[in-house]
Predict the structure.
Amino acid sequence: QLGIVGMLPPKVQTIDEQADQVYQQYQSQSSALEKRSLLMSIFNENRTLFFKVFSQHVAEFMPIVYDPTIATTVENYSELFIQPQNAAFLSIENPDTIEESLKNAA
């Protein structure tokens, strides 16, 4: 009647069920970069879920979302499709626009 058949999941998962599912997906990733990509995808889509999972695995996740994996992410940034998070795009070819870019992003 409303035209929404098939548009909604057949079951509503609790936050704990969703967190378990995310962690299983996390564990199935083979590299730190893949794990970070998954976590950042969750961060961009559902911050409540991200922080729920993160709070359960802080010690395990810190090296993935921060140092040392962040260095690999930066090194491979141009090859990865990453949703920018409050980013300022700076160009070495246009140094005179850096100050304006930073002000615009603030």
Observations:
- The mean pLDDT is 87.
- The radius of gyration is 18 Å.
